[in-house]
TrEMBL record:
GO molecular function: FAD binding; oxidoreductase activity
Signal peptide coordinates: 1-25
Gene, per the UniProt record: MEE23
Keywords: Disulfide bond, FAD, Flavoprotein, Glycoprotein, Signal
Record protein name field: Berberine bridge enzyme-like 15
Amino acid sequence: MVHSSCSILSIFIILLVASPELTVSVKVPTVDEFFHCVLDHSEIALPYSISFYTPNNSSFNTVLESTAQNLRYLLPSVPKPEFIFTPLHESHVQAAVICSKQLGIHLRVRSGGHDYEGLSYASEIETPFLVVDLSRLRSVRVDIEDNSAWVQAGATVGELYYRISEKSRTHGFPAGLCTSLGIGGHITGGAYGSMMRKYGLGADNVIDARIIDSHGRVLDRQSMGEDLFWAIRGGGGASFGIITAWKVKLVPVPSTVTVFTVTKTLEQNATKILYRWQQVADKLDEDLFIRVIIQAASAGDRGGRTITNSYNALFLGDANRLLQVMEESFPELGLTRKDCLETSWIKSVLYIAGYPSNTPPEVLLQGKSTFKNYFKAKSDFVREPIPETALEGIWKRYFEEDNPFMIWNPYGGMMSQIAEDAIPFPHRKGTLFKIQYITSWQDPQENASKHIDWIRKLYNYMAPYVSMFPRTAYVNYRDLDLGMNKKTNTSFIEASVWGAKYFKDNFNRLIQVKTKVDPDNFFRHEQSIPPLPLSLRKRKRRGVHGKI
Ligand SMILES: Cc1cc2nc3c(=O)[nH]c(=O)nc-3n(C[C@H](O)[C@H](O)[C@H](O)COP(=O)(O)OP(=O)(O)OC[C@H]3O[C@@H](n4cnc5c(N)ncnc54)[C@H](O)[C@@H]3O)c2cc1C
Ligand SMILES: *[C@@H]1O[C@H](CO)[C@@H](O)[C@H](O)[C@H]1NC(C)=O
Ligand SMILES: *[C@@H]1O[C@H](CO)[C@@H](O)[C@H](O)[C@H]1NC(C)=O
Ligand SMILES: *[C@@H]1O[C@H](CO)[C@@H](O)[C@H](O)[C@H]1NC(C)=O
Ligand SMILES: *[C@@H]1O[C@H](CO)[C@@H](O)[C@H](O)[C@H]1NC(C)=O
Ligand SMILES: *[C@@H]1O[C@H](CO)[C@@H](O)[C@H](O)[C@H]1NC(C)=O
């Protein structure tokens, strides 16, 4: 009954159709013009027929839909790109930046297509736009001797995990649980997974990167400098440039790990046990990661509904030691030997991602997601246990929705040891766990507003129990309810509201980096980091600390 990590999400936008008086006539470059410009600026030639897709081509929808995870952003009412460009070589990405600038068409970049608000393939604020889809740039080069791997942006995390496991049973990488995530976008927002308590985030384990900047130059860590290298590891996607590859540091994993899933219903004291979990989850042995997946379910024979809390865990060790750890720290869950499955790290990846038990790891090479839906999601960080009475209020709200879903994700361990400003991702010491709220549906005819209203109300209800001043959120769980940029006028004041939620004080440094590397705001979207407005730049330059 535990949903696959990948089967969760999808959204519907209340679409703002541009009113006629706002429509300005823009000359849309033709795809031919763009193609020829790209040829002129690329190191190696590329055939038009396999790298450009216009809406009048029958492959257009297939390519557009291929990795788009949230079906809300594929609905007919949502604006579509003029064309999609799938580069075959890094220099084509450079050319795409140069040509998009030269020909005046807005650019969106997509790696794995999992953006919660569809920002990599749809836009509410920019027309016309093209999508640069990096799915053909997906090579993975693992160097076990060097403990590292170079991964191109279009590869999924599943492909990276597979390629590591192919070379070693005792190496791994601590990124997302859902195996179809694109490494390109994923790491830009942090990238957490089941080894975060031991090793931190994917972004904490990046050692180099290749990025195309707003001038179309390709930069590595050394040539981009430490400010930009800091900003791209957690500052959110598509604000600073296009990452073409990440170099990541591999981490040691034992040859035998243990996984389990134990489910408790309300009738089995779920509320009490969840209260207890909140007290221990961040203090457990760092080898142990227990997340809780919270759903509504039918209550069986008696009819009606209940709540299920599924404790879904990875332990970096064998079952005997796990049972000892559990007996000492969390006996209330009642874990037994027969709940435990000893396996290899790569198979634990499949287990946590929700694949059926004997799926071969090669499934990861398919590099695509198994399930899509319409969804809206939100996030919170929790710093004090939520009282049982408040949990009961959540259950009450759960019974009002068709497909309510939450994942509570434990912090502590390495997450508490890394400084808040080490990278832009600031949710560290003092965080007990993160909540992700999701509501999803399968039928395009559904009244999306009904579901979105429901999740917003639940979010309001939770306000007293979660982080405050600011109420923080995870940038990889992009949520446009928190505020968004306008087309002609990135509202600097408004941006500081959502900016503080995602990045706390790191938002200031992100703005400074943005102002330095992309002052004209070429890389922009509904929640991109804004550069300082010109007026403020001038004023600052006169000040004592005027260096930007
Ligand atoms: C089913 C599902 C499960 C998830 N599970 C996890 C999880 O376990 N852990 C976790 O941390 N997060 C998780 N996420 C959130 C995920 O990390 C983010 O959605 C992430 O941004 C996805 O990256 P992508 O490349 O797949 O998405 P995309 O939609 O391609 O990109 C996301 C954003 O980054 C930008 N971007 C994409 N590629 C690049 C690039 N090469 N350079 C610069 N900017 C780029 C895009 O324009 C967009 O703004 C999950 C999301 C979904 C839908
Ligand atoms: C459509 O795309 C395919 C593959 O890219 C190409 O072979 C074909 O010529 C295109 N057709 C049109 C009408 O553009
Ligand atoms: C549609 O296809 C024709 C060629 O078959 C091409 O000339 C034209 O530019 C395409 N239209 C768009 C909007 O790309
Ligand atoms: C629930 O907890 C109570 C005590 O708090 C205990 O007596 C009871 O046996 C528990 N029920 C289950 C099903 O575990
Ligand atoms: C959709 O849901 C919203 C919010 O619950 C409601 O106000 C609206 O009337 C509904 N629309 C339809 C067509 O049912
Ligand atoms: C830009 O934003 C500022 C502050 O929010 C506002 O006062 C101004 O009118 C806006 N300008 C335009 C053109 O929308």
